[in-house]
Protein backbone atom coordinates (compact mmCIF):
# COMPACT_ATOMS: atom_id res chain seq x y z
CA UNK A 1 0.00 0.00 0.00
CA UNK A 2 1.24 3.50 -0.85
CA UNK A 3 2.45 5.17 2.31
CA UNK A 4 0.17 8.16 1.95
CA UNK A 5 -2.87 5.85 2.05
CA UNK A 6 -1.85 4.31 5.39
CA UNK A 7 -4.59 4.15 8.01
CA UNK A 8 -4.59 3.01 11.61
CA UNK A 9 -6.24 -0.20 10.42
CA UNK A 10 -3.57 -0.88 7.80
CA UNK A 11 -0.63 -0.20 10.12
CA UNK A 12 -2.22 -2.45 12.75
CA UNK A 13 -2.58 -5.10 10.08
CA UNK A 14 1.15 -4.90 9.42
CA UNK A 15 1.86 -5.24 13.16
CA UNK A 16 -0.29 -8.38 13.19
CA UNK A 17 1.66 -9.84 10.28
CA UNK A 18 4.95 -9.01 11.97
CA UNK A 19 3.84 -11.09 14.97
CA UNK A 20 4.38 -14.17 12.79
CA UNK A 21 8.02 -13.24 12.09
CA UNK A 22 8.68 -12.54 15.77
CA UNK A 23 7.09 -15.78 16.99
CA UNK A 24 8.87 -17.90 14.37
CA UNK A 25 12.10 -16.13 15.35
CA UNK A 26 11.55 -16.96 19.02
CA UNK A 27 10.78 -20.59 18.16
CA UNK A 28 14.01 -20.85 16.14
CA UNK A 29 16.06 -19.31 18.95
CA UNK A 30 14.40 -21.51 21.60
CA UNK A 31 15.72 -24.50 19.68
CA UNK A 32 19.16 -23.75 21.23
CA UNK A 33 19.99 -23.40 24.92
CA UNK A 34 21.21 -20.06 26.21
CA UNK A 35 24.79 -20.71 25.00
CA UNK A 36 26.41 -17.96 27.05
CA UNK A 37 29.74 -17.85 25.14
CA UNK A 38 27.77 -16.28 22.23
CA UNK A 39 27.52 -13.14 24.38
CA UNK A 40 30.85 -13.32 26.17
CA UNK A 41 33.22 -10.40 25.77
CA UNK A 42 36.22 -12.70 25.41
CA UNK A 43 34.93 -15.41 23.06
CA UNK A 44 36.10 -13.87 19.76
CA UNK A 45 39.67 -12.72 19.67
CA UNK A 46 41.61 -13.97 16.72
CA UNK A 47 45.26 -13.71 15.97
CA UNK A 48 44.64 -11.17 13.19
CA UNK A 49 42.96 -8.83 15.69
CA UNK A 50 40.31 -8.02 13.10
CA UNK A 51 37.59 -8.20 15.72
CA UNK A 52 37.19 -8.77 19.43
CA UNK A 53 34.12 -8.92 21.63
CA UNK A 54 30.95 -10.98 21.74
CA UNK A 55 30.27 -13.33 18.83
CA UNK A 56 26.72 -11.96 18.49
CA UNK A 57 28.10 -8.45 18.04
CA UNK A 58 30.49 -9.73 15.38
CA UNK A 59 27.70 -11.55 13.48
CA UNK A 60 25.28 -8.60 13.62
CA UNK A 61 27.91 -6.00 12.67
CA UNK A 62 29.27 -8.00 9.74
CA UNK A 63 25.76 -8.88 8.50
CA UNK A 64 24.69 -5.25 8.69
CA UNK A 65 27.76 -4.17 6.72
CA UNK A 66 26.80 -6.59 3.95
CA UNK A 67 23.12 -5.60 4.01
CA UNK A 68 24.04 -1.90 3.97
CA UNK A 69 25.92 -2.52 0.71
CA UNK A 70 22.75 -4.22 -0.60
CA UNK A 71 20.77 -1.07 0.26
CA UNK A 72 18.80 -2.35 3.24
CA UNK A 73 19.10 0.77 5.39
CA UNK A 74 17.88 3.09 2.67
CA UNK A 75 14.46 1.69 3.59
CA UNK A 76 13.01 3.86 6.39
CA UNK A 77 11.53 0.74 8.02
CA UNK A 78 14.98 -0.77 8.65
CA UNK A 79 17.25 0.32 11.49
CA UNK A 80 20.82 -0.91 11.95
CA UNK A 81 22.11 -1.90 15.40
CA UNK A 82 25.55 -0.54 14.50
CA UNK A 83 24.91 2.54 12.35
CA UNK A 84 28.48 3.81 12.78
CA UNK A 85 30.86 3.10 9.90
CA UNK A 86 28.34 1.33 7.66
CA UNK A 87 29.62 1.01 4.09
CA UNK A 88 27.67 2.81 1.35
CA UNK A 89 25.10 1.01 -0.74
CA UNK A 90 26.30 -0.39 -4.06
CA UNK A 91 22.80 -0.76 -5.55
CA UNK A 92 20.85 1.90 -7.46
CA UNK A 93 18.86 4.06 -5.02
CA UNK A 94 15.15 3.32 -4.67
CA UNK A 95 12.86 6.27 -4.17
CA UNK A 96 11.16 5.29 -0.90
CA UNK A 97 8.08 7.35 -0.27
CA UNK A 98 8.67 9.97 2.43
CA UNK A 99 5.83 9.41 4.86
CA UNK A 100 7.49 10.23 8.18
CA UNK A 101 8.13 13.74 9.48
CA UNK A 102 11.88 14.20 8.74
CA UNK A 103 13.07 15.52 12.15
CA UNK A 104 11.36 12.56 13.85
CA UNK A 105 12.27 9.91 11.29
CA UNK A 106 15.81 9.30 12.57
CA UNK A 107 14.82 7.86 15.96
CA UNK A 108 16.73 4.63 16.57
CA UNK A 109 16.32 2.84 19.92
CA UNK A 110 18.15 -0.32 18.87
CA UNK A 111 20.58 0.06 21.77
CA UNK A 112 17.68 -0.35 24.22
CA UNK A 113 16.25 -3.21 22.16
CA UNK A 114 19.64 -4.98 22.18
CA UNK A 115 20.06 -4.59 25.97
CA UNK A 116 16.48 -5.68 26.68
CA UNK A 117 16.75 -8.71 24.41
CA UNK A 118 20.06 -9.95 25.82
CA UNK A 119 19.57 -9.10 29.47
CA UNK A 120 15.84 -9.65 29.98
CA UNK A 121 14.04 -11.51 27.21
CA UNK A 122 16.39 -14.37 26.30
CA UNK A 123 16.37 -15.92 29.78
CA UNK A 124 12.56 -16.08 29.66
CA UNK A 125 12.20 -18.27 26.60
CA UNK A 126 15.41 -20.31 26.23
CA UNK A 127 16.60 -23.17 28.43
CA UNK A 128 19.87 -23.04 30.39
CA UNK A 129 22.80 -24.99 28.94
CA UNK A 130 25.50 -25.05 26.32
CA UNK A 131 25.49 -27.18 23.16
CA UNK A 132 28.37 -25.40 21.40
CA UNK A 133 26.22 -24.11 18.52
CA UNK A 134 27.27 -20.50 19.04
CA UNK A 135 27.26 -19.36 15.41
CA UNK A 136 23.77 -20.78 14.80
CA UNK A 137 22.63 -19.23 18.07
CA UNK A 138 23.95 -15.84 16.96
CA UNK A 139 22.26 -16.25 13.56
CA UNK A 140 18.90 -16.89 15.21
CA UNK A 141 19.43 -14.00 17.63
CA UNK A 142 20.05 -11.78 14.62
CA UNK A 143 16.67 -12.75 13.14
CA UNK A 144 14.90 -12.06 16.44
CA UNK A 145 16.63 -8.72 16.88
CA UNK A 146 15.80 -7.62 13.33
CA UNK A 147 12.13 -8.64 13.67
CA UNK A 148 11.82 -6.92 17.05
CA UNK A 149 13.54 -3.78 15.81
CA UNK A 150 11.32 -3.55 12.75
CA UNK A 151 8.15 -4.00 14.83
CA UNK A 152 9.13 -1.59 17.57
CA UNK A 153 10.26 1.14 15.16
CA UNK A 154 7.02 0.65 13.26
CA UNK A 155 5.72 2.77 16.12
CA UNK A 156 6.89 5.78 14.05
CA UNK A 157 4.39 4.93 11.30
CA UNK A 158 1.66 4.26 13.83
CA UNK A 159 2.33 7.60 15.51
CA UNK A 160 2.36 9.47 12.19
CA UNK A 161 -0.99 7.95 11.20
CA UNK A 162 -2.50 8.79 14.59
CA UNK A 163 -1.19 12.36 14.36
CA UNK A 164 -2.54 12.83 10.82
CA UNK A 165 -5.92 11.44 11.80
CA UNK A 166 -6.37 13.93 14.67
CA UNK A 167 -3.60 16.55 14.93
CA UNK A 168 -5.73 18.79 17.14
CA UNK A 169 -5.81 16.04 19.77
CA UNK A 170 -2.02 15.67 19.92
CA UNK A 171 -0.70 19.19 19.33
CA UNK A 172 -1.25 20.68 22.83
CA UNK A 173 0.57 17.78 24.53
CA UNK A 174 3.39 17.92 21.96
CA UNK A 175 3.86 21.67 22.51
CA UNK A 176 3.80 21.14 26.29
CA UNK A 177 6.27 18.22 25.90
CA UNK A 178 3.84 16.27 28.06
CA UNK A 179 4.92 12.63 27.72
CA UNK A 180 2.29 11.27 30.11
CA UNK A 181 -0.60 12.80 28.18
CA UNK A 182 0.85 11.62 24.87
CA UNK A 183 1.18 8.11 26.30
CA UNK A 184 -2.46 8.19 27.41
CA UNK A 185 -3.67 9.51 24.07
CA UNK A 186 -1.94 6.82 22.04
CA UNK A 187 -2.79 3.90 24.33
CA UNK A 188 -5.68 1.59 23.44
CA UNK A 189 -5.99 -0.97 26.22
CA UNK A 190 -8.47 -3.14 24.35
CA UNK A 191 -6.09 -3.39 21.39
CA UNK A 192 -3.22 -4.36 23.71
CA UNK A 193 -5.32 -7.08 25.35
CA UNK A 194 -6.22 -8.46 21.93
CA UNK A 195 -2.53 -8.46 20.88
CA UNK A 196 -1.54 -10.40 23.99
CA UNK A 197 -4.26 -13.00 23.44
CA UNK A 198 -3.53 -13.35 19.73
CA UNK A 199 0.23 -13.84 20.13
CA UNK A 200 -0.37 -16.55 22.75
CA UNK A 201 -2.74 -18.29 20.33
CA UNK A 202 -0.24 -17.99 17.47
CA UNK A 203 2.54 -19.38 19.69
CA UNK A 204 0.29 -22.40 20.38
CA UNK A 205 -0.46 -22.92 16.71
CA UNK A 206 3.04 -22.31 15.32
CA UNK A 207 4.85 -24.06 18.18
CA UNK A 208 3.06 -27.37 18.32
CA UNK A 209 4.65 -30.64 17.29
CA UNK A 210 2.98 -31.77 14.08
CA UNK A 211 2.68 -35.54 13.87
CA UNK A 212 0.86 -37.89 11.54
CA UNK A 213 -0.76 -39.95 14.27
CA UNK A 214 -3.66 -38.78 16.38
CA UNK A 215 -1.72 -38.03 19.58
CA UNK A 216 -1.87 -34.40 20.51
CA UNK A 217 1.27 -32.59 21.55
CA UNK A 218 0.48 -32.92 25.29
CA UNK A 219 0.20 -29.18 25.76
CA UNK A 220 3.92 -28.82 24.98
CA UNK A 221 4.96 -25.95 22.76
CA UNK A 222 8.31 -24.94 21.27
CA UNK A 223 8.00 -21.62 23.05
CA UNK A 224 5.69 -21.06 26.01
CA UNK A 225 2.61 -19.12 24.77
CA UNK A 226 2.20 -17.30 28.08
CA UNK A 227 5.83 -16.12 27.85
CA UNK A 228 5.25 -14.78 24.33
CA UNK A 229 2.24 -12.90 25.64
CA UNK A 230 4.36 -11.51 28.48
CA UNK A 231 7.17 -10.45 26.12
CA UNK A 232 4.60 -8.43 24.21
CA UNK A 233 2.87 -6.98 27.28
CA UNK A 234 5.98 -6.10 29.27
CA UNK A 235 8.48 -5.12 26.57
CA UNK A 236 7.48 -5.17 22.91
CA UNK A 237 4.40 -2.95 23.21
CA UNK A 238 5.93 -0.61 25.84
CA UNK A 239 8.98 -0.10 23.58
CA UNK A 240 6.70 0.53 20.59
CA UNK A 241 4.82 3.13 22.63
CA UNK A 242 8.11 4.68 23.70
CA UNK A 243 8.98 5.12 20.00
CA UNK A 244 5.53 6.61 19.37
CA UNK A 245 5.97 9.16 22.18
CA UNK A 246 9.51 10.09 21.06
CA UNK A 247 8.26 10.48 17.50
CA UNK A 248 5.33 12.68 18.47
CA UNK A 249 7.57 14.88 20.62
CA UNK A 250 9.48 15.77 17.44
CA UNK A 251 6.40 15.91 15.20
CA UNK A 252 6.13 19.71 15.21
CA UNK A 253 9.89 20.44 14.92
O1 LIG B 1 -2.46 -0.17 17.67
C1 LIG B 1 -2.04 0.88 18.16
O2 LIG B 1 -2.76 1.87 18.31
C2 LIG B 1 -0.66 1.00 18.57
O3 LIG B 1 -0.21 2.06 18.93
C3 LIG B 1 0.20 -0.23 18.67
C4 LIG B 1 0.18 -0.82 20.06
C5 LIG B 1 1.13 -2.05 20.01
O4 LIG B 1 2.31 -1.88 20.31
O5 LIG B 1 0.66 -3.11 19.57
C6 LIG B 1 0.68 0.19 21.02
C7 LIG B 1 -0.17 0.99 21.71
C8 LIG B 1 -1.61 0.78 21.79
O6 LIG B 1 -2.03 0.85 23.11
C9 LIG B 1 -2.02 -0.48 21.16
C10 LIG B 1 -1.18 -1.26 20.43
From TrEMBL:
<keyword id="KW-0057">Aromatic amino acid biosynthesis</keyword>
<feature type="domain" description="Chorismate mutase">
    <location>
        <begin position="134"/>
        <end position="244"/>
    </location>
</feature>
<dbReference type="GO" id="GO:0046417">
    <property type="term" value="P:chorismate metabolic process"/>
</dbReference>
<dbReference type="InterPro" id="IPR008238">
    <property type="entry name" value="Chorismate_mutase_AroQ_euk"/>
</dbReference>
<dbReference type="GO" id="GO:0005737">
    <property type="term" value="C:cytoplasm"/>
</dbReference>
<dbReference type="GO" id="GO:0004106">
    <property type="term" value="F:chorismate mutase activity"/>
</dbReference>
<dbReference type="Pfam" id="PF01817">
    <property type="entry name" value="CM_2"/>
</dbReference>
<dbReference type="GO" id="GO:0042803">
    <property type="term" value="F:protein homodimerization activity"/>
</dbReference>
<keyword id="KW-0963">Cytoplasm</keyword>
<dbReference type="InterPro" id="IPR002701">
    <property type="entry name" value="CM_II_prokaryot"/>
</dbReference>
<comment type="pathway">
    <text>Metabolic intermediate biosynthesis; prephenate biosynthesis; prephenate from chorismate: step 1/1.</text>
</comment>
<dbReference type="GO" id="GO:1901747">
    <property type="term" value="P:prephenate(2-) biosynthetic process"/>
</dbReference>
<keyword id="KW-0413">Isomerase</keyword>
<dbReference type="InterPro" id="IPR036263">
    <property type="entry name" value="Chorismate_II_sf"/>
</dbReference>
<protein>
    <recommendedName>
        <fullName>Chorismate mutase</fullName>
        <ecNumber>5.4.99.5</ecNumber>
    </recommendedName>
</protein>
<keyword id="KW-0028">Amino-acid biosynthesis</keyword>
<dbReference type="InterPro" id="IPR037039">
    <property type="entry name" value="CM_AroQ_sf_eucaryotic"/>
</dbReference>
<dbReference type="GO" id="GO:0009073">
    <property type="term" value="P:aromatic amino acid family biosynthetic process"/>
</dbReference>
<dbReference type="GO" id="GO:0008652">
    <property type="term" value="P:amino acid biosynthetic process"/>
</dbReference>
Amino acid sequence: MARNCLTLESVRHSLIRQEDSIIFGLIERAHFPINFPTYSQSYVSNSLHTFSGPLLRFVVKETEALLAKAGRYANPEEHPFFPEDLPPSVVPPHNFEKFLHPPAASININKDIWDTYINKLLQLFVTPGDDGNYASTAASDLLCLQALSRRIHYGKLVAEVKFRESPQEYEPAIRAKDRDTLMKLLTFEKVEEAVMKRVAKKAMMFGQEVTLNKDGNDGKYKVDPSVVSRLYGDWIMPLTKHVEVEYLLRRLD
